[in-house]
Amino acid sequence: MNVLSSASVDPTLHLQFDDNNLLSQLFGEHDKHLARIEKQLGVTVVGRGNRLTITGSQDASDTARVALETLYKRLQSGQSVGEADVDAAIRMANSNERTTPGSGIQLRRKVVHPRSSAQSHYIDALNQHDLIFALGPAGTGKTYLAVCAAVAMFSKGLIDRIVLSRPAVEAGERLGFLPGDLREKVDPYLRPLYDALNDAMSAEQVEKLLESGEIEIAPLAFMRGRTLANSYVILDEAQNTTPMQMKMFLTRLGENSRMVVTGDLSQIDLPGGAPSGLRDAVDKLTNVDGAAFIRFSDKDVVRPPLVARIIRAYDAADAQKKNPDSSK
Predict the structure, then answer these.
(1) Which positions of the chain have pLDDT values less than 50?
(2) pTM, two decimal places
(3) Of 86, 73, 69, 74, which Cα lies nearest the Cα of 28?
(4) What residues contact 242, with CB distance under 8 A and at least 6 apart?
């Protein structure tokens, strides 16, 4: 793979690739990957033989080049390329960061690579810190990557148990009115955690480990009075905890354990304007040694680009409500 020309006075940049067999995958069916890059970056990409010509502004052309190089290296390593991978490569190229070989999460079935700059920093934090707070909107991979990191550590025998928790229904966790036994009551609220587990390992493994207790999925109230040693503990939707619940949860951390707290402070559902335990923890623990804080934004949303635009629209509307004079 070579860059044949990229002088700033020349708006056209040329790339040459060594392996023609990979180019059809790089281009995508009916060149759909190239079209996706063109649409998102406002460039023109033309492929002829083993060469690509990129025409556009210097910054956009350089971003397209980096994205294409990243995708080509992905193909060289034996991985596939889909639309989400194209979006991720563009996102990483825009942030001037590239995925390094050690920055992914190694699972038995696959390697999970970061799809944004914030995800790259998040994976580093998951590998280095005992307490991690991941803050930001839905679709940024906060919970998914934490579950993958937990599964990776469990598979290596570094921990004995994975504990996944969420505040159920509301901060008070009143479940009695729901039909069924306890698992049937809480399962709908814990379903996103099951979904992440089932993507990280086979459904048969998940069920077996749930039955053995090596994976535990439970509402937050079940954490009270416990000390969680040799465990990987994840609290999801933490913005809907009270300060007392958050303190209770954080002080469950035992020896040889890791704890991840995820949440979106723009989506607090506590009744009556009650204070959020997540916001309280951020205020009190930001400078505590050993705790890491990773903040995601709409730019890190790894779902279809429309989702990021929806989040930005809602954020803009909320900002307008809080400061109505700002548009004048």
Answers:
(1) 4-10, 101, 169-173, 175, 177-178
(2) 0.75
(3) 86
(4) 171, 270, 274, 275, 276, 277
* Distance from C-alpha of 61 to C-alpha of 301, rounded to nearest angstrom: 23
The CATH H-level superfamily of 103-322 is P-loop containing nucleotide triphosphate hydrolases (3.40.50.300)
Give the whole-angstrom CA distance, residue 153 versus residue 162.
9
CATH classification (class only), 2-94: alpha beta
Amino acid at the residue 256: N
Give residue 307's region: left, alpha or beta (phi > 0; psi -120 to 50). Answer: alpha
Only one residue has tokens 């069920």, namely 207
d(CA 37, CA 81): 13
Report strand pairing: 51-55 vs 12-16: antiparallel
State pLDDT tens for residues 53-104. Answer: 999 999 999 999 999 998 998 888 888 888 888 888 888 888 766 555 457 8
